[in-house]
Amino acid sequence: MPSIIKFDNILADITYLKELASTYQLDFASLPQQRQLYTEQTRQRVGQYALISDEGGVGLVDISDPKLLPLRVDFAADALIYRKDKGGGKNEAIAKAIGIKKNAQLNVIDATAGLGTDSFIMASVGANVTMMERTAIVSALLHDGLIRGGKEPNCAEIVARMRLASGDAREQLQQRVAEQDTNVDIVYLDPMFPHKKKSAAVKKPMKMFQTLIGSDLDADDLLTPALSLAQQRVVVKRPNYAPFLQDHTPTMQIKGKKHRFDVYLTHHSLRTGHTKSADETQTPD
After folding, report:
1. Surface-to-core class of residue 167, CB atoms within 10 Å of its CB (0-12 exposed, 13-18 middle, 19+ buried)
2. What is the spatial distance between Cα 23 and Cα 159, in angstroms, rounded to a whole number?
3. Dihedral (C-alpha) 88, 90, 94, 98: value to the nearest 10 degrees?
4. Domains, the chain, ranges and CATH?
5. For the segment 107-133, what is each residue's pLDDT rounded down to a tens digit?
6. For a tag site, which of 67, 115, 145, 262 has the least CB within 10 Å?
7. Angle CA(247)–CA(200)–CA(140) in degrees, nearest 5?
């Protein structure tokens, strides 16, 4: 989907913004074009959503709702830092699911990175995380979030363990399999899944994001290359009501109130004797 980058601050780094737009094939709007952003003509040309840059960084906006605050990737956000510091660390369900207790230097591919929250949490417990994201606008948000996060003292060390690989995850995973890449310990999948009609209303910024991303109807296609690539395990995050990917029963599960982690030990790990520990199979509170 085509989009647009415009800026509000005359002191903005225009070179950086132009490079960001060029990298992710987005239109770039200069200052004289700002007034035209929230118009029906612009919406028809670039779609409902656009990127802006202001003092808070690059953010996603809804052209039809100019009062809605931009949605950004902010790895220094208070809520994320609080979760890092107080959320349980290596005792978090996601940390148990990827097996972080066995090895604090795991190399993880987050093949459905989205806004990067899970990637950040995995990196915060010591993993090296490669984020794959196929949507250009979201890749631009992640790119900017990594740049800004790398300058923040409370998260710079964590962000240094994260990198972005923009593009279709299935193609990237298959390419790594073809290249016989043995440096990937874990492949993590959290595909978008249609929400139940009776579920609680999603907040507007996240609804905007979900509308932009859509449901990952091809999520099943990720499991096979992921299982071929991962040296230890594939972890799939799913709503509790969702079916298994490919109807493939996992080796074990870690369940929460609303979602679960389906864990598949790969043939690589079974061949090398990597087995699950008792605490990895416990259901978190």
Report:
1. middle
2. 20
3. 180
4. 4-62 (no CATH), 78-281 (3.40.50.150)
5. 999 999 999 999 999 999 999 999 999
6. 67
7. 75
Mean pLDDT is lowest, of 206-210, 212-216, 257-261, for 212-216
Q: What is the strand order of the sheet 4-7 is part of?
A: 27-28, 4-7, 49-54, 57-62
Q: How confident is the model at residue 283 (pLDDT cuts 50, 70, 90)?
A: very low
Q: 224: pLDDT confidence band, cut at 50, 70 and 90?
A: very high
C-alpha 180: how far from chain center: 25
Residues 247, 259: Cα–Cα separation, whole Å: 17
pTM of the model: 0.87
Q: Which of 166, 165, 191 is nearest to 244 (CA)?
A: 191
Rounded to whole angstroms, the Cα distance separating 15 from 244 reads 45
CA nearest to 262, candidates 246, 244, 277, 275: 244
